[in-house]
Write a structure and sequence with these properties.
It is a single chain. This protein has 611 residues and is α+β, with helices and mostly antiparallel strands. It has 4 domains: 11-160, PAS domain (Beta-Lactamase, 2-Layer Sandwich); 161-223; 362-428; 437-592, Heat Shock Protein 90 (2-Layer Sandwich). It is built from 18 helices and 19 strands. The protein has helices at residues 27-31, 33-56, 75-81, 85-88, 102-115, 162-203, 206-223, 243-248, 252-255, 270-276, 325-357, 362-395, 404-428, 441-451, 453-458, 478-495, 513-519, 561-571, and strands at residues 11-12, 15-16, 61-65, 70-73, 124-130, 136-148, 151-160, 227-231, 237-240, 283-291, 297-309, 314-323, 437-439, 462-467, 474-476, 501-509, 526-533, 575-581, 584-592. Strands 4-3-7-6-5 form a 5-stranded antiparallel beta sheet, sandwiched between helices. Strands 9-8-12-11-10 form a 5-stranded antiparallel beta sheet. A hairpin with a 5-residue loop joins strand 5 (124-130) and strand 6. Helix 12 packs antiparallel against helix 13 (404-428) and helix 16 (478-495) packs antiparallel against helix 18 (561-571). The longest helix is centred in the first third of the chain and has 42 residues, at 162-203.
């Protein structure tokens, strides 16, 4: 008895893998349940591998059905064209090409579907692509076609060649410039030759003029600053002028009949093979690094041409080698100097921000302590009276419908709240010494981040952590430093919208020695911690008040958490600052490393965290 065949197709998160091979199952297979299950599992595994390969490919891979609609789209395609998978799938493939190619594409598609084949299948073609924003860019496309019982399907592998096109244009411009110089030099040589011929005709002394011409040519070759050389078909030097001895710091006799590859740095010797493969009259022009006899690297520009050796029928390669080492070194020094300058400017900007935001609040703290003590005594007396009246209401069974008993209870509740705030103020102004010990600040940060793991998950927040110098310990109070980290991480969580990223970065910063002397910094190396959130931008007018007591942008809390953090950091002779712009809000903490002296009582204030 014949049983109708069935098909199995793997379903991914984005739908089935386009045109995945369907495996028929015969009637006999249906009787073997275990074998059928294994086949299904195998097909699913193959399809999953295919999906992973397509998704992780560096180049865009796009699949389309016979109607020209996009059925497969990987991450590289999203990066290249700007369309998300949801925006691209089931859309016509023509959204990825300039309008002028749409009509030709549709004709070619109909012809391929009708004939069942693609005449340029698997060949690499250079065309233009169109991004989501409408901009066009050059690409290389390789298209393959296949056919199943569901119809034709097409798979395109695409490569963005914008950078290559730019480099080709730069190379063409350089070639044009070099050709112009060669033409100009050739014209000079032609004029010189004409002069020589004229002199020969005038003096009728051919032999003497030939000797003069040979001497002039020899002088020209030997005096030019570039190395002039000739290579045989094996890549060995058969001729060199005197400049080669200066460039390679090797006698000419030792260089002759040796391969040019012997003087090329190992990682660039493959370039020599391309010289020896030049076609007749083809020109090779490229930069290459050489090693002289002392092992010093020399940057050179080589331009050579392949010619026939008329006497033997073999190939010769005549060329010019120009030493560009000084120019390249100057370019590298300029680049390095610019990077160092930018780094110094960045450090100066951050230090300036730290200095501006690190003003002492000692007078404010002392005044707050005096006010808190003055208010505490009368508030305690009032609270005692209120509680006594409340007990009397309760003992005389006075009902609450009159509102008096309820009012007394509200007075007592508010007095308790004020007493709690005064207690916090008194704790805030208390001065104690730091308990310094050697500890790894990165380990403390990791501990705090682990403790807040659930808080991150509740708001669906992502965490980006980059902790450098993680093996180095420094002198600090671990509990107080942990308190600072807790405050900053908690504030970042509160400020961040759901789904955003909080970045935590640390490292070792080394200010310039002149900067250390100028502003009398306490250490030559600083531990730096940055915590950035993508919450609302803090108004520039409010930034100077961000560390002030009782200032908060939230609807809850006492507003002394950042003030506490600032006091703890300053007790460590460090600094804390804040920046808020379009990239988010970043709190930056600097703590001096290897500091020897102990902090004073005025600077070492131990305060409890207030949020």
């Amino acid at each position: 008895m014949e049983i109708e065949s069935e098909s199995v197709e793997y379903e991914s998160k984005r739908g089935s893998v386009p045109h995945a091979e369907k495996i028929p199952v015969s009637g006999a297979d249906l009787w073997s349940g275990d074998q059928a299950a294994k086949d299904v599992s195998t097909i699913r595994e193959i399809n999953e591998r295919l999906r992973v390969m397509v998704e992780t490919a560096n180049d865009p891979i796009i699949g389309a059905d016979s109607s020209g609609r996009i059925m497969m789209w990987n991450s590289a395609a999203t990066r290249a064209f700007g369309y998300s998978p949801e925006e691209a799938l089931n859309q016509p493939i023509t959204i990825l090409m300039p309008q002028k190619f749409v009509a030709l594409h549709e004709i070619a598609l109909k012809r391929a579907v009708a004939s069942g084949r693609l005449y340029y299948s698997k060949s690499i073609r250079e065309v233009s692509g169109r991004r989501k924003d409408g901009s066009e860019f050059p690409v290389e496309v390789s298209i393959s076609a296949g056919k199943t019982h569901e119809g034709m399907f097409f798979t395109a592998t695409i490569r963005d060649i914008t950078e290559r096109k730019q480099k080709d244009e730069e190379l063409r411009r350089a070639n044009r410039e070099l050709e112009y110089r060669v033409t100009e030099r050739t014209a000079q040589l032609v004029r010189l030759n004409d002069d020589l011929k004229q002199e020969i005709r005038e003096r009728k002394r051919m032999e003497a003029m030939l000797r003069d011409s040979e001497l002039l040519y020899h002088t020209l070759v030997e005096e030019v600053p570039d190395v002039i050389f000739v290579l045989n078909e094996e890549g060995r030097f058969t001729y060199l002028n005197a400049q080669a001895e200066e460039l390679l710091r090797t006698p000419l006799r030792a260089i002759l009949d040796t391969p040019i590859s012997a003087y090329v740095v190992p990682e660039e010797r493959y370039k020599i093979d391309s010289i020896l493969k030049l076609a007749h009259h083809a020109v090779w022009d490229e930069e290459i690094r050489l090693l002289d006899a002392d092992g010093e690297t020399k940057f050179t520009r080589i331009r050579c041409k392949a010619l026939d050796d008329g006497s033997r029928g073999a190939m010769l390669y005549e060329g010019v080698m120009r030493d560009i080492t000084r120019r390249r070194r100057l370019e590298e020094q300029l680049k390095e100097s610019r990077e160092q300058l930018l780094e110094k400017v960045k450090i100066i900007d951050e230090l300036y921000s730290h200095i501006i935001q690190t003003s002492k609040s000692k007078a404010i703290a002392q005044h707050t302590a005096e006010v808190a003590h003055e208010l505490r005594q009368p508030l305690t007396i009032i609270g005692g009276f209120a509680r006594r009246i409340a007990r009397q209401f309760d003992s005389y069974n006075i009902g609450s419908d009159s509102g008096q008993a309820e009012a007394v209870r509200m007075i007592g509740s508010e007095i308790q709240r004020l007493e709690k705030i005064l207690s916090t103020l008194i704790e805030f102004t208390r001065q104690e010494g730091l308990n310094r010990q050697m500890a790894n600040p990165n380990a403390i940060i990791e501990k705090v981040l682990h403790l807040y793991k659930e808080a991150f998950e509740e708001k669906n927040l992502k965490l980006s952590v980059s902790l450098r110098g993680d093996e180095e310990e420094m002198s600090l109070d671990p509990e107080r430093f942990e308190q600072v980290v807790r405050n900053l991480v908690s504030n970042a969580i509160d400020a961040s919208p759901s789904g955003e990223v909080i970045r935590v970065e640390t490292g070792i910063s080394i200010p310039d020695s002149k900067l250390i002397e100028t502003i009398a910094m306490d250490a030559e190396r600083y531990f730096e911690m940055k915590i950035r959130n993508r919450g609302a931008i803090i108004d520039q007018a409010e930034l100077p008040r961000i560390f002030s007591p009782f200032f908060t942008t939230k609807n809850y809390g006492t507003g002394i958490g950042l003030t506490v953090s600032k006091k703890i950091v300053e007790a460590h002779k460090g600094s804390i600052s804040v920046q808020s712009d379009g990239e988010g809000t970043t709190f930056i903490v600097w703590l001096p490393m290897n500091i020897q002296e102990h902090c004073t009582a005025d600077m070492c204030m131990d305060v409890q965290c207030g949020t």
